[in-house]
Amino acid sequence: MNAKIAELELTEPILHDELVESCKRGDSRAFGELYQKYSKAMYNTSLRIVNHTGDAEDVLQEAFTDAFRSLEDFHYKSTFGAWLKRIVINKSINQLRKRKMDLIDIEKTNIGHLPEDDTPDENEIALRIEDIKKAVGLLPNGYRTVLTLYLFEGYDQEEIAEILQVSHATVRTQYMRAKQKLLQHLKQGAS
């Protein structure tokens, strides 16, 4: 789970429960507060999967609408943030499917190793982060989805297989190939 969401929920568990219960009673102020607390993190989660700002905004709107309509189904088996994130991820994956997401195969390539550098300064780190973001954005939808769910969202391969409704072997292969392709893009300068 996103560290910011976990921290938010650990520091204010009673407030979150009260907000959720208020939402269940139709309190629009509570809806607004929950939206304010989670919208940015959920937007970023969706954007990392769909890689398109308009689609991420659509997913965010649909996810919150569905979540608020389904609050009676939320029984505190997990945190509200984890429950909402699951909805956002599922909606994001459905959005990719609408764009005819295909889990594709690539030829195995010999990527080699990236050169080891001395300790980088902050500017170098910022540039590398931007390079990584660009390289992730260049990945095919299937690779980007698996990589995002595993590395950024913290799901294990079995959970990803369940979410994507594919076999564990497919997820393992897609993840391995996504890493290879990512390294290839980074080696080429994400161009």
What does this structure look like?
By secondary structure, the chain is mostly helical. The chain folds into two domains: 3-98, Orthogonal Bundle (Rna Polymerase Sigma Factor, Chain: A), CATH 1.10.1740.10; 122-187, Winged helix-like DNA-binding domain superfamily/Winged helix DNA-binding domain (Arc Repressor Mutant, subunit A, Orthogonal Bundle). It is 72% helix and 0% strand. It is globular and about 55 Å long.
Write the layout of secondary structure elements.
Blueprint: H1 3-11, H2 13-24, H3 28-50, H4 53-69, H5 80-98, H6 122-138, H7 141-152, H8 157-164, H9 168-187
Helix pairs in contact: 2-3, 3-4, 3-5, 3-7, 4-5, 6-9, 7-9, 8-9
Summed up:
The protein has helices at about 5-10, 15-25, 30-50, 55-70, 80-100, 120-140, 140-150, 155-165, 170-185. By secondary structure, the chain is mainly α.
- Content-based structural category: mainly alpha
Query: What is the CATH first-level class name of the largest domain?
Result: Mainly Alpha
Q: How many strand segments?
A: 0
Determine the number of helices (DSSP H or I, runs of at least 4 residues): 9
The number of distinct structural domains comes to: 2
Throw out a few tags for this protein.
single chain; about 190 residues; mainly alpha; Rna Polymerase Sigma Factor, Chain: A; Arc Repressor Mutant, subunit A; 2 domains; 9 helices; about 70% helix; about 0% strand
